[in-house]
What does this fold into?
Amino acid sequence: MSLQMRDLNESNEFLKLLFDNITSGIFLVDKDVRIQNFNNSFMALFQQPEEKILGQRCGNAMGCVFAVEEQKECGTTSHCSTCQLRQSLIESFTKIVPIYRAKLTREFYIKGEKTLKYFQYTAKYIMYNQEQMVLVIVDDITEIETQKILVENRNKFIQKVFGRYLSEDVVTTLLDNPEGLNFSGEKRRITIMMTDLRGFTSLSEQLSPEKVVGIINNYLEYMTEIILRYKGTIIEFIGDAILALFGAPMVQDDHAQRAIACSIEMQQAMKSVNEKNRSQNLPEVEMGIGLNTGEVVIGNIGSEQRAKYAVVGSNVNLTSRIESYTIGGQILISENTKKDAEHIVFINDEMPVQPKGVKYPITIYDVGGIGGQYNLYLSDTNSKDLQVISKVIPIEFLILEGKDAGGQAKKGSILKVSKKQIEIRTDIELKKFSNLKFKFLSNEGKDISGDIYGKVIDQFDNNGRTVLIHFTSMPSKAQSFLNGVLAIC
It folds into this structure.
């Protein structure tokens, strides 16, 4: 006569076979929640000898932190009334209802050390030796749960660090493929972008704090959207400046091309920025962009209290130097960026420069556009709209070194004008890229404009005494005067 499944499940032979051949920890408890039988896997799981398991309540046999630290029997500790495992065992007895794959997180004393454990257990009422028992199967899932927590924490960190500075699809890619990240720091060849509103420091001194913030927010709103669309990483906003990366944290083989195309679209968007500024009675602004490609160190930098994804290295400093040569509406790139962008980048001009902190002269390139899949171009910003004035206008200027205006004021005369540029003649040499602070003067030598800021962008003679200056900041008083001059030219 064949043995019925019910009889097999509750037979001593079946339980012995099960106990001896399963890797899960198995134990039987009676109505008093005392352990009446167990397998070797259970003993190995909690590292307890047999005499400390058999006949003991489950909390004492397992080394429950509450039973050990309060030195009480399981069932009488401060935690027992809410203990999930104890309630499951009692419910299995009273309701004859099995508990499947419940999870338990608890600290246990294992080999004398407090250890956080994650368990999954199943509890089922059975008859054993004609006694009512509950069979409990316990699996240690600590390693699995720990890995899940690490992944969750990593994902939270990625969201915290990159959520505001990367597009949603890039953040999703990072979450799905975290192997592309190295938060401890790594060297990588990327393209760095630095932007700046030209002459904004002097402009901000003339405006209320509300208007300064309004201009910056209008500007950053448009620029952020474009950078994220091109999969750039915004490292930080520094007042009116932006530091962004292409090629990190996600590897991008086309980071140089991507950065150039992004820069062109950013310059094109300045029209919309200024339309919004005008609608809010705010002054118009211009932006310069510098790009450089090279090896940097990227990673999570900071302390436990405050850390951020950052970039360091001489190539970051060089990018800042390149950006400092720009005028409004211009994009200047390094030799490396030009090489990496290959044949699809269009160059208007090239200029040898000697940046501070760089041992040898370098060549920087004025970008006119980019072809290929992007097909983006900047409008012509040369001096073709300069108009000769009928009467020479005297000026007084200082050459700026860094942020300081030093030395004695020099004299010069305006020969030609446009809305954004003037051609002047002076008695001293003015080097290309020199920054000037100057004033328009009346015939009597009185200030008729207020402080104007500009950059020398071209020389028209060999001795550098006839030069082209691009305005970087101009008060409304000077703009009104200039408009009047243009009207009669």
